Amino acid sequence: xWQLETQFYEVIERVPRVKSFRFPKKGLNLRYRAGQYFYVxxxxxxxxxxxxxxxxxxxxxSNYIEFTKRITDSAYSSALDExxxxxxxxxxxxxxxxxxxxxxxxxxxxxGGIGITPVKSMLxxxxxxxxxxxxxLLYSNTNADSIIFKHELEQLAGYPGIxxxxxxxxxxxxxxxCFHHGFINKxxxxxxxxxxxxxxxxLSGPPSMVEAIGLQVAQLGINSxxxxxxxxxxxx
Length: 236
Description:
With 236 residues, the chain is α/β, with parallel strands linked by helices. The protein has helices spanning 75-81, 116-129, 150-156, 186-192, 207-219, and strands at 2-7, 10-15, 18-24, 37-44, 47-54, 64-70, 88-95, 106-112, 134-141, 162-168, 180-181, 200-205, 227-231. β2 and β3 (18-24) form a beta hairpin.
């Protein structure tokens, strides 16, 4: 575990109302595993307030650690929206077991919206370390313009062993002809992940989505020990 006072290093708008926040890492012993989370304390109305966030950066990134958040109307989120490079923060971590397995090499990631953050961390790690994982990602968003890390995912999809399928739940768009339209469901999982019984499943996103997908994955005969969930309750 580590804990230190630091400053925000960079703020990046990914899509409207979603921002990535970075802290300097170079020269610091900030170790963590891809898929884990850490705690970030900022000042809200001059008082410290803390929330936990998944790393959206890979442990192989040497210059910074990063988390990514959807901006809402909560006090913490509103204060975070005003953060500038150089502003104070306290960070502490890491924690969490939503991480790559040691033995199983076939992985199915299913996530929605901001739930992509720990998955991106893991996929970046697989690519940078040139690991022999076979990864399939089903990623759901409302439309093509709301896809977080769209460019980064396009680059990851070019790496052997990483396949990415986008699902858009909103109205069909002529700008996204290669995407699947509709919600991720049991039929889609069976069609796109034909060897699903051989894979470990990682589900992340809003509670209703993760719970629904979890039930459908179980109906496909996947043992509960082969299903890991990261429920993003913190849209606050």
